[in-house]
């Protein structure tokens, strides 16, 4: 499971619970995942002992509090020797910095080994690894991706080899007797090992750096290596620590004063997660977690427009205006000529995989992006923003206006936000009317005619009350084709988008019923809907619990809102990462970790609470 991450918008590195590199994405977060495995090992030259720094081994791993900027750090103890491993991605160079600090109470002669096995461009074949003695570097490459490993001090020895094919386990086994065979080149399923010979003096820190320069050509990667070699190499770790520490402390964090220290730390982590998972081109991935490949056959490493729209809103709340704007420009680039957004896209903008049949439409995704444009304008108050994004709004709103059922006036059937059922859904309907109302306001700001979109929104609002409100049960149906008492937490989000005024007594009826039925009786938190079976029966979801928190806030219950925020904080990982959901029995994280939408919703609701405490009037979404 991912426990820590660091990135710069081009390189994204994740670290797992073993303290090992887990994923290495380049040239965008989420694309491509180039890492198959990496590990560190120690050989005691005096006693001929060897250990890999991973669990379970004779090396004991310590739990570390995240460093400023959430920079990954892991600590180990082996036979009295302490090893602290820190990881950074430099903020403005495509450079990974791994520091290894070793301290022993007695003199020891150790050999430090670093094993790296890549799957460049997500394929482990047709790769070359070679030792370049002129540059004191070891290079892996394939197609247009180059990975140049080098060290400070310079590594003592290196070897290249192969893995997986021909019955081979991997070249890491060559290190386990403390002596490398020193093969200088390999190809195919290539891997490599680096070795440093170290003499540890009693109680003196021994510092080793492993650098990885990435580039889309050999020259690009090598320019970084050359630059690192000019002057004191420690400056790159220091620059990274200083940058991220300063970056997070300079965020406009107006937080509720009574939040716990853990809840405040989670806020900082959440802002960093949003930053690290946003590409330099504006793409926002749902999660860097790739474990779902084994369960569902695909990953969360895509840009969903629903997730991205909500994340961009939270970015605006947190002062990350430039990143929110980049996302909206990325959306403009990916929007179809017809005006809607397809299911999901790769981080480079190519159309992603889907399990939905044509026309691949989830109507709320298009609506969410349009609403995010208006939200961005409100927070930034720059009319040029609306002018730049007018083509997106115009195409999208025109499509939403036409994509309707003539019999009811509601939006036509499409897949729901849970991506499971095709129908006319209450949440999707609320999204569309909200987006059309915002489109009309945007048109008005730009001197365009808003009346068509405003009229369509009014018609949809009336149709929603007429067709989706269930008078018998006193609540909204989940979708038009359902009768009976099927409760879904997404209706809370429909209320947030203005389907009913919060002062309307029906709003409280809806919220009370959803909380009563979907609240997890054992560990707390709110499930998605009745009978949910995704990763377990009716597991509580972070976003659903936060929707409930905001609903309670809008109903005049700030203390309940804060209780739910604290519940979410209590279910973050020790390194302040939020999952998609937690197990209804054990409280353990389930599915993707971190889920960026979970973090963005946390940021958004914390800001809503702070604003309500300052000015107890409801703020329009």
What would you note in describing this structure?
With 621 residues, the protein is α+β, with helices and mostly antiparallel strands. It folds into 2 domains: 2-248, Beta-galactosidase, Chain A, domain 5 (Distorted Sandwich); 251-614, Glycosyltransferase, CATH 1.50.10. It is built from 15 helices and 28 strands. The strands form 8 sheets. It has a 9-stranded antiparallel sheet with strand order 7-8-9-10-18-14-13-12-16. A 5-stranded antiparallel sheet has the order 6-5-11-17-15, with no helix packed on it. Strands 1-2-3-4 form a 4-stranded antiparallel sheet. Helix 5 packs parallel to helix 15 (596-614), helix 6 crosses helix 8 and helix 8 (383-402) crosses helix 9. The longest helix is centred in the middle third of the chain and has 20 residues, at 383-402.
User: Sheet with the most strands?
Assistant: 9 strands, antiparallel
What is the highest CATH level, the class of the largest domain?
Answer: Mainly Alpha
Q: Helices and strands: which structural class? A: alpha+beta
* CATH architectural grouping of the largest domain: Alpha/alpha barrel
Total number of domains: 2
| Rg value | 26 Å
Number of strands: 28
Number of helices: 15
CATH topology (fold) name of the largest domain: Glycosyltransferase
Helix content: 25-40%
Q: Write down the overall geometry.
A: elongated
* Main β-sheet, spatial strand arrangement: 7-8-9-10-18-14-13-12-16
Q: Could you tell me the mean pLDDT?
A: 95
Q: What is the CA-CA span between the terminal residues? A: 34 Å
